[in-house]
Amino acid sequence: MQTLGIIGTNWITGQFVDAARESGSFTLTAVYSRTMEKADQFKTKYHAPEATSYTDLAGFMNASEFETVYIASPNSLHFEQAKQAILAGKNVIVEKPAFSNPTEMAAMQTLLKQHPDQFLFEAARHIHEANFKIVQQAINELPTINGATLSYMKYSSRYDAVLAGEEPNIFSPHFSGGALQDLGVYVVYDAVSWFGVPDSVDYQAELLPTGVDGKGVATLRYPTFNVTLIFGKTVDSYLTSEIYGGQTTIVIDNAGTIGKVERYSEGGQKIASLGEPSLANPMIAEAENFATMIANHDTKRYHELLQLSESVNQVLYQLRQSAGIIFAAD
C-alpha cells in the first residue's frame, strides 16, 4: 500500500480517502489544511489518527511521510500546487479540471518531461469505471455514429450564495469556476474519450453575475456528426443521455455517473441492458488504477491518460473562449 498526502478537506477528498483505503491502494499519512483544527478533524473522521497534520504548504510538500499527493483545492490553485509537488519529488493526483488553461497544461507537460519518474493524474474518476468502458464497447459495435446528446445537470448548494449576491469559489472566475469546469468536464471527457477531439466547438452559456456560467449547451462538431453537451449547476435535470447509430440507440442514465447502459433497436425495443451495478464508492476504480500504474511504472497507459487530459483541457478552453468566459488564471 502506497502512502498518500492530501490537500483539501472537503467531501470529495474524504470520498477518495475512503476509496483508497477500501481498495487497499493508498494509506493516508499526511493532511494539509489552512487550519490545524480542520486537518485534525479530517484525520479523525476518516480513521487516520496517525497521519501528520500540516498548515505550512512548503513543509507539507517536502515531508517524507508520503509518496503521492491528492489535490482537491479550488481549481485555480491546482497548477502551482501540482508544480510544487512535482518539484518535491511527489506523484500527483489532481482533481478535475486539472488546470485552468492550455498555458498551464503546457508548462506542466514540460515539467513532467524533466521529471520522468513521477506521475501526474487528472482524477476524472468516471472514465475508470466499468460502465464507462461498456459504453465505449457498445459504441465500437455501432454500424455508424450519427451523433450524441450527453447531459449532466445538478443544482449546487453554493448557487444560493450567488443568488444572495455572493461569489463562492465554485462560481468565481478568480478560482476558475463555473458549470463547464465543474460538471461540463464530465461530458467533455465522455465525448473526447468516445469520439475523439472535435473539429470545432460552440458554447451557448447562461452567464451569472459573477462572470462564469451557471449552465449551458455546447456543440462539438465532428466530420460527419455533432455531439450536444447539456450541463449546469443552477437546476436539477433527469434527462438521459443518448448515442445514435442508425437504427440503434445507446441510452445512459447519467453521463457523469453512469449507472445504467441500455441499447435500443428500431421501434424503441430494448434489446440489451449492458451496464453493471455501480460500486458504492465511485472512486475505487481510479484509486486502484493510479496505484497500479505507479507501482508497475506503467508509462504506456499513463501517457495515454495524460494525452487525454491535455485534449480535454484544450476543448474546455475553446468552449470558454466561445462563450467569452475569462479566468484570472488566463
Automatic annotation (TrEMBL):
Source species taxonomy: Bacteria, Bacillati, Bacillota, Bacilli, Lactobacillales
Domain of life: Bacteria
Name of this protein: Oxidoreductase, NAD-binding Rossmann fold family protein
GO molecular function: nucleotide binding
Gene3D superfamilies, A to Z: Dihydrodipicolinate Reductase, domain 2, NAD(P)-binding Rossmann-like Domain
Origin species: Latilactobacillus graminis DSM 20719
Coiled-coil boundaries: none
Gfo/Idh/MocA-like oxidoreductase N-terminal domain: residues covered: 5-118
